[in-house]
Design goal:
Helix content: 25-40%
Shape: globular
Strand content: 15-25%
Number of helices: 9
Number of strands: 11
Bound molecules: NADPH dihydro-nicotinamide-adenine-dinucleotide phosphate, the ligand O=C(O)C1=N[C@H](C(=O)O)C[C@H](O)C1
Radius of gyration: 20 Å
Strand order of the largest sheet: 4-5-6-11
Order of helices and strands: HEEEHEHEHEHEHEHEEHEH
Structural class: alpha/beta
C-alpha cells in the first residue's frame, strides 16, 4: 500500500465486511506513516500503518502474531519471490496477485517441503478467470484443433506497469495447447503497448490511460488467411480484480479454518471459481 491495486483490494475487503490488519508493507523508499483506507461505497474506513519493505522482518512482531491474518500481495515483480518466502517462513496464508518475478521459483517456494495455504493468479477478475477456465477446457478436450494457425497478441497497460501481462502469459499457454506442439509463438512476440498514444489508438479511453487499464487481443489466423478468430478482454480500472481478491481471501480463510493450520494447499483462481466462492 498505497499502490493502486493494493488499495482497491483493501477497499473491497472493507466492503465485504473484513477488517484490515493495522500494518501493511509499502515500497522500500517510503517512510513509516499512517494512512486511512475508505471504501467509497460503504464509507467504511480503517487506519493502516505503512511499513517499508526493508523492514519486512518487523511485521510479524508488529501484528502480534499472524493468526487469522491473510496477506494480500499487490506489490512489484521484483518483490514476488522475497515476499513469497516471507509468507511461507512465517506461516502466513496469502493471496498473490502480483505478476512477474520467477514464477517457477515461487511455485517451488509454496510447494516444498510441504504445501502452503495460498491463492496465486495473474488475474482475479471473475469473468476473466471463467474465460481462462473455458480455454483450459478447449485445449484439454480439443488439443491442436487450431493446428497451423498463427497467433498474434497485443496487450496494453498503463505505462507504469513493469512487466509483461501475466494474464497474457497464462492465456497463451492455453492457446498454445489449442494450436498444438508445432506452435512457435514466443513470449517476446507479445506486442506490449506502454505509451499513451499507442494505447489510445488501441481503444483505451483517455481517462484510463494512466489511471489503469488492461486491454488484451489475441488473434488466431489460419495458414491461408481465410479464417480468423479474435479473443478480446478489455478492462478499465481495477475494481473487477479487487472484488475477486476479497473473495479469494474469504475462500482461503475458510480453507485454513476448516482444514487446519497444519495442512496447506496451493490454489489458483479457477479453484476459487469452481468452489462457487467468486
Ligand atoms: N492478479 C490480478 O488480478 C492483478 C494483478 N496486478 C498486478 O499487481 C501488481 C501491482 O499492481 P499496481 O498496484 O497497479 O502496481 P504499482 O506499481 O502501481 O504499485 C505497486 C505498489 O507496491 C509497492 N511496492 C514496491 N515494492 C514493494 C515491496 N518490496 N514490498 C511492498 N510494496 C512494494 C509500490 O511502492 P513504491 O511506489 O513506493 O515503489 C507501490 O505502492 C502488478 O504486478 C500487477 O501486474 C494488477 C491488477 C490485477
Ligand atoms: O498491472 C496491471 O494493471 C494488470 N496486471 C495483471 C497482469 O499482468 O496480467 C492483470 C491485469 O492485466 C492488470
Amino acid at each position: 500500500m498505497p499502490g493502486p491495486m493494493a488499495t482497491a483490494a483493501a477497499e473491497a475487503c472493507l466492503r465485504k465486511g473484513m477488517d484490515l490488519a493495522p500494518f501493511c508493507l509499502t515500497g522500500p523508499d517510503i517512510e513509516e506513516t499512517e494512512i486511512e483506507i475508505t471504501d467509497p461505497d460503504t464509507k467504511r474506513s480503517q487506519k493502516v500503518t505503512l511499513v517499508p519493505s526493508t523492514k519486512i522482518g518487523s511485521l510479524v512482531d508488529k501484528l502480534g502474531g499472524v493468526e487469522g491474518t491473510v496477506a494480500i500481495d499487490y506489490t512489484h515483480p521484483s518483490a514476488v519471490n522475497g515476499n513469497g518466502e516471507f509468507y511461507v517462513k512465517n506461516r502466513i496464508p496469502f493471496v498473490m496477485g502480483t505478476t512477474g518475478g520467477d514464477r517457477d521459483l515461487l511455485m517451488k517456494t509454496v510447494t516444498s517441503p510441504s504445501p502452503h495455504y495460498c491463492v496465486i493468479a495473474p488475474n482475479m477478475g471473475k469473468q476473466i478467470v471463467a474465460m481462462q477456465n473455458a480455454l483450459e477446457f478447449l485445449q484439454t478436450q480439443f488439443p491442436a484443433s487450431f493446428e497451423g494457425y498463427t497467433l498474434k497478441i497485443t496487450e496494453s497497460h498503463q505505462k507504469k506497469k513493469a512487466d509483461t501481462s501475466g494474464t497474457a502469459l497464462a492465456v497463451i499457454d492455453s492457446i498454445k495447447g489449442m494450436v498444438g506442439p508445432k506452435c512457435t509463438f514466443q513470449q517476446d512476440e507479445i506486442n506490449m503497448l506502454r505509451d499513451d498514444a499507442s494505447s489510445k489508438d488501441f481503444g483505451v479511453p483517455t481517462e484510463y490511460l494512466e489511471a489503469g487499464h488492461a486491454f488484451h487481443t489475441y488473434t488466431l489466423t489460419s495458414p491461408d488467411g481465410s479464417v480468423e478468430f479474435e479473443l478480446k478482454h478489455n478492462v478499465c480500472g481495477r475494481r473487477v480484480y479487487a472484488e475477486g481478491t476479497a473473495d479469494a481471501v474469504k475462500f482461503l480463510a475458510k480453507q485454513v479454518e476448516e482444514k487446519g493450520d497444519g495442512g496447506g494447499k496451493v490454489f489458483n483462481m479457477i479453484d476459487v471459481l469452481e468452489a462457487g466462492a467468486l
